[in-house]
## 1
Amino acid sequence: MFNFLMPTYYYRTVFDLPDSFWRDNGIKGVLFDIDNTLEPYATELPSDRTVTLFEILKAQGIKTAIISNNHKERVERFAAPLKAEYYYESLKPKTENVFKAIENMGLKREEVVIIGDQLFTDIWCGSRAGIRSIFVERLSDDESAFIRFKRAIEIPFVKKISRKGYGKI
Ligand SMILES: [Mg+2]
């Protein structure tokens, strides 16, 4: 039960993944959440480590896209310095933008992974789309009342995931 909330991989942050992770796992496309995955909500622009991560992926020939539930201005402004494809107001766990992104990448579902910090948003979206997912711990506690509500429901599932430890679940 609740297998749709189980990610394929679990890491502390996206920056803790080894550079060889993508190639080792046959990943050719990465769908990123922004808020609390790449940067906290209040951070308008990508930090150097995010820029570096996107450069590492590009150097390995891996395609990237940003799939955010946030509004157009936030997502557009954030994606510009990364020169990444972006999709805003995605309503994850809705899968529409995930499928659009995979199609634009010209990849197969099994070659793509979604990364995010919320089980009921990012990980569920990955399960619904039939793609692999990476669950990461949130970068800050600065969240809306609705997200804090979802966090409360997530607790038993996060415990189950964290008991397995970092890496493949
Ligand atoms: Mg998020």
## 2
Amino acid sequence: MPALALLLCFLSPLVLASGDELLLRNANVVNVETGQIDTLDVLVRKGRIAAIEKPGRIETTPKAIDLTGRYLMPSLWDMHVHFEGRDLVEDNALLLPVYLAYGITAVREAASNLAPTVLAWREEVARGDRLGPRIFTAGRKFEGINSLWDGDREIGSVAELRAGMDEQQRLGVDFIKVTENTLQPDLFLETVREARRRGLTVSTHVPLGLGIFELAEAGVSSIEHASYLLRLGSADEEKVALAVREGRMGPEAANQHYRSKFEQETANAAYQRLAELGVAVTPTLIGGRQLAWLQDTDHSDDEFLRFLTQAFTANYQWRIDRMAGETDAERQARKSRYTLTAAQVPALQSAGVLLLAGSDSAALNTYVYPAEALHEELSLFVDAGLEPLAALQAATINGAIFMGVDEEYGSVSVGKRADLLVLEGNPLETIHATRHIHALVHGGRYLDRAALDGLLNEAGVKRARLDVARSTQP
Ligand SMILES: [Zn+2]
């Protein structure tokens, strides 16, 4: 409501600020909903934004910080991460404050084999007993029997599906996640329907045996990984899915069909239908990007490695090994496929699909570094042709809308939680500005650059201690 906000500026009396408040003066406030930037004073009281006024209209408090020349925006949300690894509990825990240092104050944890631990962290963060981003978690994800992944909630019948969902609801998960390793299409679809019958948000992969619109009409809330959407470039996607489901077509033939039949215009028309059905998409480009250019990149000096234990990065090896035998032609095909997948991001945006920025960072996702990867993801969105404003929306207000908490989070607005990012540069001019963080306001607390560096140093020390302790174990 920019018009109303402007009106209030003129009508409201001078706001008096008291001692326990924080006044951010002369900030260039980025309105992530409109793309407008205005120089304003922002008053934070009890963790919320209490007033936004033209400079000088709020009386200075002892805790006033001048942000002249700097940019103030809502802090970032990573809408797809995993805290996983049964032997990596401390390794993941030490990363939670690192998220804050990277400007990320909420993460959507898209299933874990540490589900009880992640649920405990969620409560500890909410109570203020643990420093880290707010956590939304799927708990365990739904899969078929004998799934490849560790820790899944495996189901083989409707009865098991209902029992599984009762269990997830008892645990109080924030959404349901469904993947397709061994879960059969009919039961997959029924899982989505059951989640929606119970009023739950449900995020999924897409099995080859299901049409994307079968899922959309069953009520899927978001599709994870834009690579699945390339199937919509084939006009007969639903027929192919049916052929796979009935065993008339194998997975390799189906994939080959989709690769050879892709037409952007067909995909664009389908994206409009997706938008009409209210299906959000989390593209997760960075993982595919890192794998496609694995051979061309030396990661040995990556700065982020100071926060990752040897046990954590040891998990990177399985994908590296799996790809070691690839031919040059296969590598080239992987790059082309990445480029085509990335090109879907602006196409989805133009069609009106709600985009969610998620990194898919996880110990199992090679060189997708927690926290840092979200910034990479935003850069990749812009490289692919998305406007910086749309990229920022995908990492702020869109996540809040998706989780149904946009009245509380996602923009610099009076009444919302004071989770704010102070940047050195204008993120609408260059998306790389999100990496140059001057300060973070987290639940109303002001963490300046020195405080954020302190969090990073502490995480680095903890990481080193874990490595040393493990290397000296008998
Ligand atoms: Zn994932």
## 3
Amino acid sequence: MGLEQQLEIPVLTTSVEKMVQWARRSAIWPVTFGLACCAIEMMAMSCSRYDVARFGAEVFRASPRQADLMIVAGRLSRKMAPVLRRIYDQMPEPKWVISMGACASVGGVFDNYAIVQGVDQVVPVDVFVPGCPPRPESLIYGIVQLQKKINETRI
Ligand code: SF4
């Protein structure tokens, strides 16, 4: 007699690794970290029109201790860089970073001494989302790319 007949309920078998990957990619919690105009598009993404909840990533957390994704949305000033790094360090592992927009990724139009020319100089970046600003759909696409990356991460 098969397992399903013995238990009289449907049974799904999988590996622990696949289950952990599924859980991690399906409940990404971003830390609140809007720095400039890109943050407006990030907020729009979490509202009903774009509804990032469809991808399990709508629960923005004010505490880095409860977050596993940092979306750097906007230009990063040199004064702000140590703060960003400290918040990143306070996030528990595993954690990921999305660099949103031209300013966060390469400094954008702010090619000057006050702006960090790429947030990857301060924290490791998993996904870069281009644009000035990227539309909410672009950021959702970035989150889907991150989910694929999480799914391929060996435990
Ligand atoms: S990329 Fe454009 S929209 Fe985003 S922070 Fe820079 S100037 Fe603002």
## 4
Amino acid sequence: MKAAIPGFDSLPVVCGISDRHIGHDDFLKSLGVIKARLARMQQVHAAKVVKVGARTDLSREIAEADAAITDVRGIALSVRTADCLPVLFYDPENEAIGAAHAGWRGTRERICPGVVGMMVSAFGTDPSKLVVGFGPALRQCCYEVNSEFLVHFPGSVVKMAHKHYFDMVGENAGQLISAGVSSKNIYDCGICTSCMNGDFFSYRREKDAAGRMLTVIMLK
Ligand SMILES: [Zn+2]
């Protein structure tokens, strides 16, 4: 099974999330994405957003970036994850897209509002029209954290039976709404990588043995 984000299947974009049963090359082939036109980010758990243009060098990873935006047709933006949250953006008015890798550090650095802000300045995006999608991630059910997380995310840490759990997806949704995104335009695949470890990679469950899911979006 491949993961799908409801709401995104009707958009004029190519988009998908690989699972543990398909290799990245086969997955890209199934989407019709040409590897030479795949933008890959170094992903350093920070919040740098990069605008990808027709002349961007795609032969190597984009240094230090954890998010990318583009309005170039046929360039696919990609995010690799195993527990961190892949976030996709689509601006229907200006025909532009974005992709972000949001772990807890990137979430703390407000990477999603960073993408929204960059799309506003680069493409004139109206945040209230943006469509946003969440892929598979470690969810609150399985994301036990220490109480330090209360300092960073006071509204998104739940205490149950003397343990703390982080709602990373809820935190990102809240940040997006505070950046002007409409809650009705936020779609979530609802998959927890740990609960669904048979189909998806989970770094917390598998440690260094964990592979990575690839999440891709491209303007048709
Ligand atoms: Zn879970």
